[in-house]
Amino acid sequence: MQNGNSANNSIIHPAGFYIVGLSSVPYINIYVMFITVLYVITVICNVFLITIIYYDHRLHVPKFMAVGNLALVDLILSTSLVPAMIKIHLALDNFLPFKLCLVQMFTYYTFVSLESLSICILSYDRFIAICLPLRQESINTNTRMAYIIGAIWLFCIFIIIYATTSILPLSFCYSLEVNSYFCDFAPVLLLACNDMTHQWILATALTMVFIVVPLTFIFLTYIGILIAVFRMKNNQSRYKALATCTEHLIIVTFFFIPVFIIFNLSFFRVLWHPKIGLVCLSLSSLITPCVNPIIYSLKTKEIRSRIFFLLTHRLSVHPHKNAH
To answer: What does pTM read for this prediction?
Structure first.
């Protein structure tokens, strides 16, 4: 143990923590290899999507600014977890220094919060496009979208900095084993040996802000979308409007449903094996960033056509090379 603050010797910070949440899960090495493959796919797909959006000026519109933002968030979110999990379970080194623990906590929660709000931005984009099509170009401009994206980044960064640094006044004088798959806020709090009321209230409030509020916002936007769709005069227009929402609804399902179910099971104290919850949470944190770029690449006409153009252009530039 070491003193965390020279001005206040009653605050005791450890050298670090041991991440043990998944250590007793059967076949953990196979699971970690699986998420490593998932991570490689995530990096390749998100970098590819960001590159296409960046270099194709036809995609420099509000919708694809939001999609590119989500891809960047996915990339950093996965990177905050997987390399550390590889180190813990394949290199057999589960010790994480105290300061590095706070850095990982800050990075993960900043970008999982940004993931939630970025999905909200995409629902806002669909709402404007379907409910206010004649005013879409004047309401949902590139500048306004940039302001919205910048605002949520600043909001998440500052609020998570506050949440993470709220741990600093706590002392840790008992176990140093964090029962999670990373340096998680709540499991770290459980190791503190002084009053944590403020931190628990803050954690509960932020859970509401980043899960309940976004879900409510998405639900209300889709109520508005459904009202607008049912007012359309023919079935073809209705189908076309709803088809533009499918990729977003898939992303909402992958991201929010597992978190919402696990949160409610824990909140209502439903008895189940805690390791199952940790595996499910880790999967939901890693599958969504992998699935998002694939869905937008396959389901979005503009990106599909751009990928097709790049592939056909490549083949036409090197016809003899590809013939061999």
So the answer is: 0.88
